[in-house]
Design a protein that fits this description.
By secondary structure, the chain is mainly alpha-helical. The chain has 16 helices and no strands. The longest helix is centred in the first third of the chain and has 37 residues.
C-alpha cells in the first residue's frame, strides 16, 4: 500500500486531517497568487510601461487556458479518490495512464491553438495598441511551453487525489524560486522585458515538472503509469464529463467579473482604480475558501469510494464550521481595516476610499463562500459537477450581475452595494445547495 495514514481520509480524526491537508494547498494558492505579481513587479521595475500591459494581459489570457486544465484535472482528482477509497488500485493505474495520453494530446493541441491565435486573443482583450506586440510575444512563448504547464497541474492533481498536498506545495515553491531568479537574470540583467518574463515562467514550470517526476520516482508509489493503458480509454470520458461543467462555470464566471468591471468603469477613474485595488485584496480573501473546496473534494471522494457517506457528510460540516470561523476573522479585518489594506497598494486617498467602499460590501463573502465552497467540494466528491455548474450560473446571472448593474446605475452609486452583490449571490447559492444536499441525502439513504 503506497498511502500512509495521513493520506487515508477514510479513517481517523476528521478536523486534523482536513487542516493538515488544507494548509499546504492554502500556501500553494498564496504562492501562485504571488507568482504573476513577481513578473509584473520586475517588468515594471526593469522593463517598459508597455511591457507591464503585455505581461498583465498575456497572463490573463494564459490563465484562461490554465483554468480549463484545472477544471478537467479536478475530475481526475475526484475519480482517483473514489477508486482509492474503494481500494480499486488497478483502476487507478488505468486512470493515470489514460489521463497522460489525454493531457499530452490536449497540451499539444492547445499549444498550436495559442501560438496561431495569439494576436486575435490579444486584440480581443482590448490591449492598448502599443502593447499588442509584446502581449503576443508573451502569449506565444508561454504557449510554446504549455506542455509543462499542463503536466505541472496534472501531476499535482494526481497527488491531491491520493491525499498528498505537501508535495505539490514543494513544486510550487520550486517554480516560484526559479521564476524569480529567471526574471532577475533575463529581465533585470539581460533587459529582455516581456520575453524574459515569459521564458522565466516556462522555465520555472519545466524545472518543476522534471523535479516532480524525480521526486515521485523516489517515493516509489504503488500507483504508476502503464503502457498498456496509454490510450483514450474508458477513463477519459469519465473524468472529462466530470471536469467540463466546471470548465463552463469557470469560463462564464470569469466573464461575469469582466462585466462587473465594465459596470464600475462607467463610474469614473477613481471608482475603476479603487475596484482594481479591491480586486487584489479580494483575491487574497478568497484563498481560504478556494483551499477549502480543493481539500473537500478528495476527502469526500475517498469516503464515497469507501461507501462511508456519514463520514463524508461530517467532513463537509466540519469544513463549513472551520471555514466560517476563519472567514469571520477575515471579514472583520476587511470590513474595519480595508482602507489600511488598500493603502498597501496606493497612496491616492480617493482611490483608497473607493476601494474601502467596495470591500465593506464584499467582506461577508469571506464567511459565506467558505460555507458554499464546502458544499461544492462535497458535490464534486460525489461527481455532481453538473449541479455545481448550474448553481454557479444561476447565482451569477440571476443575482450577482443584475444586482451589480442596478446598483451601478443609481444616482451617486455606492461601491458598497455593488460589492454586496457577491455575498448576496453566494447566499442564494447556499440556499440552492442546501436544498440539493437534502434531496441527495434522501436518495443516498434509500440505497
Amino acid at each position: 500500500m503506497c498511502m500512509n495514514d495521513k493520506q487515508d481520509f477514510t479513517q481517523g480524526p476528521i478536523l486534523s486531517k482536513l487542516i493538515t491537508f488544507m494548509l499546504p494547498i492554502l500556501l500553494s494558492l498564496v504562492l501562485q497568487s504571488l507568482y504573476g505579481a513577481v513578473d509584473l513587479l520586475i517588468v515594471g521595475r526593469f522593463g517598459t510601461t508597455a511591457g507591464i500591459s503585455g505581461v498583465s494581459v498575456g497572463g490573463n489570457v494564459m490563465n484562461l487556458f490554465t483554468m480549463l486544465l484545472n477544471a478537467i484535472t479536478m475530475g481526475v482528482t475526484v475519480i482517483m479518490g473514489q477508486y482509492i477509497g474503494a481500494r480499486r488500485f488497478e483502476a487507478v493505474n488505468k486512470l493515470i495512464s489514460n489521463a497522460v495520453a489525454f493531457f499530452l494530446a490536449l497540451s499539444l493541441f492547445l499549444t498550436v491553438l495559442i501560438i496561431i491565435f495569439a494576436r486575435p486573443l490579444a486584440r480581443a482583450m482590448q490591449t492598448p495598441e502599443e502593447a499588442v506586440g509584446l502581449t503576443v510575444e508573451y502569449i506565444r512563448i508561454c504557449g510554446a511551453g504549455f506542455i509543462f504547464i499542463t503536466f505541472y497541474n496534472f501531476i499535482s492533481a494526481i497527488l491531491r487525489g491520493i491525499g498528498d498536498s505537501n508535495t505539490p506545495l514543494v513544486f510550487v515553491a520550486i517554480a516560484s524560486v526559479v521564476n524569480i531568479v529567471g526574471d532577475l537574470i533575463l529581465v533585470a540583467g539581460f533587459k529582455m522585458n516581456v520575453a524574459g518574463a515569459a521564458i522565466a515562467t516556462v522555465a520555472a514550470q519545466a524545472v518543476s515538472v522534471v523535479l516532480s517526476l524525480w521526486i515521485i520516482k523516489r517515493k516509489n508509489l504503488q500507483f504508476k503509469f502503464e503502457k498498456k493503458y496509454f490510450n483514450f480509454g474508458s477513463e477519459v470520458p469519465h473524468f472529462v464529463k466530470l471536469g467540463l461543467p466546471l470548465t463552463v462555470q469557470g469560463f462564464l464566471t470569469n466573464f461575469s467579473f469582466l462585466a462587473l468591471n465594465a459596470f464600475i468603469n462607467r463610474l469614473g477613474l477613481e471608482a475603476s482604480s479603487g475596484y482594481g485595488v479591491a480586486q487584489k485584496i479580494q483575491m487574497f480573501v478568497m484563498l481560504v475558501p478556494g483551499a477549502l473546496m480543493q481539500s473537500m473534494a478528495p476527502f469526500v471522494s475517498q469516503n464515497v469510494g469507501a461507501q462511508n457517506e456519514k463520514r463524508a457528510r461530517k467532513g463537509m460540516l466540519c469544513g463549513q464550521a472551520m471555514g466560517s470561523v476563519i472567514g469571520f476573522v477575515i471579514m472583520a479585518v476587511t470590513f474595519f481595516f480595508g482602507d489600511f489594506l488598500a493603502r498597501l497598494f496606493t497612496e491616492d486617498d480617493a482611490v483608497v476610499a473607493r476601494a474601502f467602499e467596495f470591500l465593506r460590501g464584499f467582506s461577508p463573502e469571506a464567511v459565506v463562500t467558505c460555507i458554499l465552497f464546502s458544499y461544492l467540494g462535497y458535490f464534486n466528491g460525489h461527481s455532481k459537477s453538473l449541479f455545481v455548474m448550474i448553481q454557479g450560473l444561476l447565482q451569477t446571472f440571476m443575482i450577482r450581475l443584475p444586482v451589480s448593474y442596478v446598483m451601478s446605475i443609481q444616482p451617486n452609486a455606492s461601491l458598497t452595494w455593488i460589492g454586496f452583490a457577491a455575498p448576496l449571490a453566494t447566499t442564494f447559492g447556499i440556499a440552492m445547495c442546501f436544498v440539493y444536499y437534502k434531496m441527495m441525502g434522501r436518495e443516498l439513504d434509500r440505497k
